[in-house]
Amino acid sequence: MHAHFFGSDLVFSTLKMPLPASMIAGRVGNESERQPAIRVGVMTAPKSPAPPAASSEQLTGSVTSGVSADHPGVNELFALLAYGEVAAFYRLTDEARMAPNLRGRINMASMAAAEMNHYEVLRDSLERRGVDVVPAMTKYASALENYHRLTTPSTWLEALVKTYVGDALAADFYLEIATSLPVEVADVVRAVLAETGHSQFVVAEVQAAVTASEKQRHRLALWSRRLLGEAITQAQYVLADHDELVDLVMTSGEGLTQMTEFFDRLQRTHMSRMQELGLA
Q1: Contact present, 162 and 227 (Cβ < 8 Å)
Q2: Which of 96, 119, 159, 227 could form a disulfide with 166 if both were Cys (CB 3.0 to 4.6 A apart)?
Q3: Residue 32: CATH number of its domain
């Protein structure tokens, strides 16, 4: 997912990374709802409804990796993704009830079904590695649920934007890590982030709504920026709280320099998705 993904001063300080100025401006919402003592997880596992924004490395395969397939961070990555898929399933089925018509409910249900298929891929991968998926992923439950609590949509259109934009941000994060993982590990990550083919209905509905109403355009643009800020916050919290994941990221690439550049790219691809939806 999901997933989702990041922006707390505390966490950037923990990782000794500067907080991007654009994120300071984009952090909206009720700060009193946050739980700074609780490190929250990444948004739901990168969802299918992401427009094509991945790099050629992300799509074609990993670069030569210095990371072993037995690195303990791989199990943590798979467990995080697995819980993200389960959380996404329940979120999509709940939000399907907000749809104004049967077509919307069916589209959401189709995406929810794809999430469970992805969960099964991760479960099987963990079992082959001798890991019981349920206890492994349970440690991420409160983190991911907290993200969804902070980004609960109040309208059908907000639910669509979260599905399309928010989950794509999470996908960007996971795919960035995958580019430097061993091929057999990266293939699993890409498989569970695969496009399911249902995202275009989101684009069509949101574009129609914002074309008809300037008020909706401004409201959804603000919502989209909030999703970006929360996504960055959650991903950073996950890294700050799980040493194996941090070690996986740092071992697989150029460390903090690579991650800083990634967050810059994340914001650029987010803008392209806003443009796709007619929000920028």
Answers
A1: yes
A2: 227
A3: 1.20.1260.10
